[in-house]
Write a structure and sequence with these properties.
Elements: E1 2-5, E2 12-18, E3 23-28, E4 32-37, H1 48-58, E5 68-71, H2 75-86, E6 94-97, H3 100-106, H4 111-125, H5 137-143, E7 149-152, E8 155-158, H6 161-177, E9 181-183, E10 196-198, H7 200-211, E11 218-222, H8 230-242, E12 246-248, H9 252-255, H10 261-268, E13 272-276, H11 282-293, E14 298-303, H12 310-313, E15 317-320, H13 326-337
Parallel strand pairs: 4-5, 5-6, 11-12, 11-13, 13-14, 14-15
Antiparallel strand pairs: 1-2, 2-3, 3-4, 7-8, 9-10
The structure holds zinc ion.
Zinc ion is lined by residues 6, 8-9, 11, 13, 28, 30-31.
Length: 339
Amino acid sequence: MEEKNCIVCGSEALVQLNMDPVKYFYSCPVCGRYEYYVSFAELTDFDLNHLGAYLVYNGFKESISEYRYFSTMSKERCDEYKREFAKGNVIHGNPVRLEVENVENWYPKKFSEKVDHILLYLDSKILHWGEYIKLEKEELFSCFFVDRYDYVNGNYERRSESALKSQAKYMMRYLKKQELIETLDSVNGEECEKPISVTPKGYARIDVLQKNTANGKNVLVAMKFGEDTKKLREAIKKGITEAGYIAILIDEVEHNGFITPELLKHIRDSKFVVVDLSHQNNGAYFEEGYAMGLGKPVIQLCKKNVQLHFDIAQKNTIIWETEDEIVDRLKNRIKATIE
Ligand SMILES: [Zn+2]
């Protein structure tokens, strides 16, 4: 490992270069662990400005014990390594595929949504009320959704330091003016370098946000996972992604039919749930019931000629014959029924 600057945020990071295929593995204090294969996807396939924010909010820092990291390698390879990891062969770690659609669907489009994210981020960092924390410069830029780059002639060029700081200051001033945060003004330095604390008004906003996590973009998919349902899984994922949401698929390796606290949390945090009942899978029935109990919208799918459990047979269901028809029908159903 050598020390080099992170290609996304510019922080000093540890980098490992592998040849054949050419692969860079970064461990960045701000973006966490990620790798990219030059042959599969250039990082320039991503909007680097959006990716910086995505990674600070969703990345895998060194402190996370399960060896997770983002990777741009093929989905098949990711799945293979995950299966190996679940079996105890940890040599390749536990990759999570980094996908352009997920980054874009996650990225908050509205200013107010960005503000909400920032508050939740600060809350996750500040352990005690009234405490001031200082975010390092690059962490602050990523957390504050600062655009670091201009895209010029197919290349990302980093904007001047003062341009970046002025964006960060703008956000800082707004948050203070709204009385959501305070800064420790006795500390010398520029406005955006001062330690930050959340105000009582800020915490009131955080409380509301935490109750409404379901206003996000996540959608849990409940179905049977396995080799035989790969095509179905991809079709459902594509339908959800094309409708502008992020499909959460708890893999067969992590799931194994057990209802884990993590799975229940994913359901609680989902805006709605998509369930495929073609395989008479008990887990999927349970997950649907749990989601309905929480008042979440549920979109049901089922293969033609499969007998549904009578309790939910009346519910409006997308009956499909081939996986190919699922993408458009699911996308349209989401757009028509979920606001
Ligand atoms: Zn970084």
